[in-house]
Amino acid sequence: MTGGNESCTAGPTSMSYLTCLTYILEEWTGVEHIGDYLSYAFYILWLLFPLVVVFVLPGVIVILIYVSILLLHIYKRKNELKEAYSHHVWVGAKEMLATLWDGHGRIWHGYELHGVENIPPGPGLVVFYHGATPVDYIYFSARLHIMKKRSCSVVADHFVFRLPG
Questions:
Q1: Catalytic residue among 73, 109, 130, 145
Q2: Using an 8 Å Cβ cutoff, are 100 and 68 in contact?
Q3: Angle, nearest 10°, between helix axes 135-148 and 91-104?
Q4: Phi, psi at residue 85, to the nearest 5°?
Q5: 130 is catalytic
Q6: Residue 9 DSSP one-character state
Q7: Which of 93, 63, 96 is nearest to 78 (CA)?
Q8: How many helices (H) and strands (E) does the chain have?
Q9: Tens digits of per-residue pLDDT, 99-127?
Q10: What would you report as the CA-atom Rg of the chain, rounded to the nearest whole angstrom?
């Protein structure tokens, strides 16, 4: 049985890939004018895409917070015996979480840290603004730990101290 869609490029007129796909879907589903329905679906998807992005970012941050908690719990269970003999058992966990959060900040937000050389070797004060979530502090402390192997003490909202790590 020879149909009109055996080869979309063969025949008297060649058609584009999307036109060919639309023609095949029309024959397969039996729905006429499926291209109109697909263009409407793509329009709705384009219209709702910003709303989806708004809910995806907080979801990813919450998932990363729970992954951090899980990784710390696993690390604690794995190193219970070593903790009795070493005072620096949590160095590996700090490195792991700093890498996780720094990677998220770089990939998702393009986070960079400039001016670290201006932080004095002794005590210092870093003042910055955070938005609705204190995720920028997490990115800052992760990047500072990776670059300088320093911890940062914070004066912040109560919510920051409820975060894991």
A1: 130
A2: yes
A3: 120
A4: -110, -10
A5: yes
A6: S
A7: 93
A8: 5, 0
A9: 999 999 998 888 888 888 888 888 877 77
A10: 27
